[in-house]
Design goal:
Pfam family, one (chains A, B): NAPRTase_N
Shape of chain A: globular
CATH topology of the largest domain in chain A: nicotinate phosphoribosyltransferase
Oligomer: homodimer
CATH architecture of the largest domain in chain A: Alpha-Beta Barrel
Largest sheet of chain A: 6 strands, antiparallel
Structural class of chain A: alpha/beta
Number of helices of chain A: 17
Largest interface: A-B, 91 and 91 residues
Organism (chains A, B): Spirodela intermedia
EC number (chains A, B): 6.3.4.21
Pathway (chains A, B): Cofactor biosynthesis; NAD(+) biosynthesis; nicotinate D-ribonucleotide from nicotinate: step 1/1
Distance between the termini of chain A: 58 Å
Helix content of chain A: 40-55%
CATH class of the largest domain in chain A: Alpha Beta
Enzyme class (chains A, B): ligase
Low-confidence stretches of chain A: 253-271, 364-368
């Protein structure tokens, strides 16, 4: 899928122009960074690196692709296509922040260096791969933060995804950002993401009566016991529940005084929780454990609380251990905001199934615009990045330096300057320093390179990094911007460059 | 990519439950339809059928997939997996409206019939494939309608797409909906979509001086003449332009009185149009034709008009035929609304490059929710659909009938009823009748089926159908809803079913 042809045509046109001018082998570099955090937040999670590295590792334009390019660029000389056929990424270098890291605007996520014609051909695919992945991962992380650590987050987005691959990517990056499972079987197989599912309303309505259940026997998990008529066992439990004092009005007997208040409520609950309880109790008799219920409409906060009450009452009344801990899943068009609202109301939901809105939110946010500019290699412009940690263990500031500057040292004062605002600067004495850009593709195969970690490891990094942020940076409401700075030397260089390139007005 | 595992886990769980209950071979049917048109419009273009049919044609769960399913459904009996291994879609029937058709809410786009367990496994992939495709195609068609027939529409969405496949699908369905070309080379190769591209700002800035141009010779297209120093030829033209009366202030000499007004304008124009003109004129000397310019920032309406003036002046002054018809492309974050605004202001843009917002608009629109409900085959619920055309050639109304009803006849009065509102009904005397649902997958391979047309043919259908709609249905502002109706018989049946399924309150 991600072939070198997954590219804007003009990248090939420009590669040709470089080649024609004899400039195609000149070294060039581009940084991939963004200007604003998405979702109104003050942080972003970096996703997509693994796919970028796999892309360059396999970068090769085959004969069939060459002949297609030839057909769409009929005015290019043959020798250019001979050149295209030879290129690969063995003389390209990629430095990147580890995938799953918390990252901030202006800081390069990737630094790509190599022959200008080759680097030009990497630009569009990299932007494509990183943009969507980072938005999805960030969105997922935001859901995780608002849901809290103890809740299960399930991704149910396949139906509403932007095509097949959109669905698979959604599952992958939601998991990376802190979701626990997906309903998407293909994503489960490809990435080892845990799978979850329930059943649809259509399934419920496809059974018209108990007579349709042909095989009524149920064996216990260990095979030692057989219930010959599981349907009767369920019906038996249903009667018991009906005659339980606390359940009058919920389990079939209508209760005059509650009728008005419960009409809408009962429409959902009547066909849901009571039948579920009867089946779950019968299963319990046979040594099985029912997993839980899913609420898909109505007032989720209220229903989850009422459901929990019933489960707890059953645990007490019929001495069924853990029946009160039955998992309650909610899945009605949830998003970050509705999760937040549920938290404020109070609820008894254990797991959230999130689908419809997951990908909608993403695309309202084109502002995480990745910027890139292939330009000549200029040493002072090649940057290294350090994250400086304070006394309390929180990261304080990211600082960019030229690659040729000495790195900052622990316990040594360093001046951090705002990249554009002359008056904003601060001395920092870091207690710990993390070098952010690592070499993931060294060009020279003898050099060491960072391992590409598993999806599970990347997910752990993401959750760990989020937990280490100072809470006000990652809170939903009015988060504090995290500081991004440059060294004094880099500041001077940037401003020299800026002045030399800025147009000067002329007054006559 | 689109394997049978691209599915919600619960579809497999339900297939298991059907199998376990011995119901898996019972015939079931589902209609795929939507409830509301997207983008605040009153029409939708149906996309994704081709991919659905290819999906069922290749539907087969292989051994590796079976063993994965076994691992995630450890409690299912072995015989179920043996059954899964055997299934294909040879006993499934798919009727559908031709892809690229203008379609309306409540009308089934596809009717899928087959063994319930198999049909259940088709539901999620079909929704995934049709939802995104139809949104993209509809969005593209809306852009086409607002841009007008004569303008070029270019899709530049790859960088902002939701992953690699999202980009390829965007190119495909934008073309289907009436775009003319894409920048995405892979999509060009896969679907034969015309390719277009320009160059980036980075390319411009990578050349520091004329000295960097090593090879200054240019041959004429037929090879008969050689210009040894094309750079001098361009510089020569630049001087001539500078000394042209009408271009003072634009071509290098600053004009006091215009300075204030043109400061921002000149910043763009100075480095753009004048240099372009000099190169284009030099190319013209050598027998080449320059194609045009791209405006990517600033006031597109104003700049395009000023640019056109310059091109026309050059055509006149230097007698260069067609120089005034130079193609002006605009590409600065365009969407339906900005196109509409440009039209209102007046402009000289010939082509629009649309990228960033193309996919954003899509995902603000989750309301094109596809609905589906696998249920028992019930003859009266299997519907046929007819589009009835009036005297002026416009479609008047779509009518759904039971498949067993006689079809409507030309020039014969038929009662069309609103599906839910008892009082809304009208007699229609159709002048032409189109049967909308065609058989694309007959199950029985001996039966005839509709051909899957090429992307180009589907695009033609889309543009033709749009041009045949009564204009008030497709206009941007306050469009008139198109009428969708049911036959008298189907109305009665629906309401019988409705009453029999609706809960009845009980008062004691």
């Amino acid at each position: 899928m991600v072939s070198p042809l997954l590219n804007d045509l003009y990248q090939f046109s420009m590669a040709y122009a470089y080649w024609k001018a004899g400039k195609h082998k000149e070294r060039a570099v581009f940084d991939l960074f963004f200007r604003r955090n998405p979702f109104g937040g003050e942080y972003t999670i970096f996703g997509g690196l693994d796919e970028c590295i796999r892309f360059i590792a396999n970068f090769k334009i085959d004969d069939e692709q060459i002949s297609f390019l030839r057909s769409v660029m009929p005015n290019c000389e043959n020798a250019f296509f001979d050149y295209l056929r030879t290129i690969d990424c063995c003389d390209v270098e990629v430095y990147a922040i580890p995938e799953g890291s918390v990252v901030f605007p202006k800081i390069p996520l990737l630094r790509v260096e190599g022959p200008v014609a080759v680097v030009q051909l990497l630009e569009t695919p990299f932007v494509n791969l990183v943009n969507f992945a980072s938005l999805l991962t960030t969105n997922a992380a935001r859901h995780r933060l608002v849901a809290g650590k103890s809740k299960l987050l399930l991704e149910f987005g396949l139906r509403r995804a932007q095509g097949p691959d959109g669905g698979i990517s959604a599952s992958k990056y939601c998991y990376m950002g802190g979701f626990d499972a997906t309903s998407n079987v293909a994503a489960g197989r490809l990435f080892g993401i845990p799978l979850r599912g329930t059943h649809s309303h259509a399934f419920v309505s496809s059974f018209m009566s108990m007579d349709e259940i042909v095989d009524k026997t149920l064996k216990s998990p260990d095979g030692s016991r057989t219930c010959e008529d599981f349907v009767s066992l369920v019906q038996n439990w249903f009667s018991k529940l009906q005659w339980t004092d606390k359940f009058r009005g919920i389990f079939g007997e209508t209760n005059q005084s509650e009728l008005a208040a419960f009409i809408s409520y009962a429409l959902v609950m009547k066909s849901g929780i009571p039948n579920f309880c009867a089946v779950a109790l019968a299963l319990n008799d046979m040594g099985y454990k029912a997993r839980g219920i899913r609420l898909d409409s109505g007032d989720l906060a209220y229903q989850s609380i009422e459901g929990r009450k019933i489960f707890c009452e059953i645990e007490k009344k019929f001495s069924v251990p853990d029946f009160g801990k039955m998992i309650i899943t909610a899945s009605n068009d949830l998003n970050e905001e509705t999760l937040d609202a549920l938290n404020k109301q109070g609820h008894e939901v254990d797991a959230f199934g999130i689908g419809t809105y997951l990908l909608v939110e993403i695309s309202k946010q084109p502002r995480m615009k990745l910027s890139e500019d292939v330009s000549k290699v200029s040493i002072p412009c090649k940057k290294q990045i350090y994250r400086l940690y304070g006394r309390e263990g929180y990261p304080l500031v990211d600082i960019m330096t030229g690659v040729n500057e000495p790195p900052p040292k622990v316990a040594e004062r360093i001046l951090c300057r705002h990249p554009f605002n002359e008056s904003k600067r601060a001395y920092v004495v870091p207690q710990r320093i993390e070098e952010l850009l690592k070499c993931y593709w060294p060009g020279d195969s003898h050099k060491t390179r960072e391992e590409l970690p598993s999806l599970q490891k990347i997910r752990e990094r993401c959750l760990l990094q989020l937990s280490q942020m100072r809470p006000d940076h990652v809170r939903r409401l009015n988060p504090t911007p995290y500081k991004v700075s440059v060294s004094a030397k880099l500041y001077d260089f940037i401003h020299f460059l800026w002045l030399s390139e800025a147009p000067v007005g002329e007054l006559q």
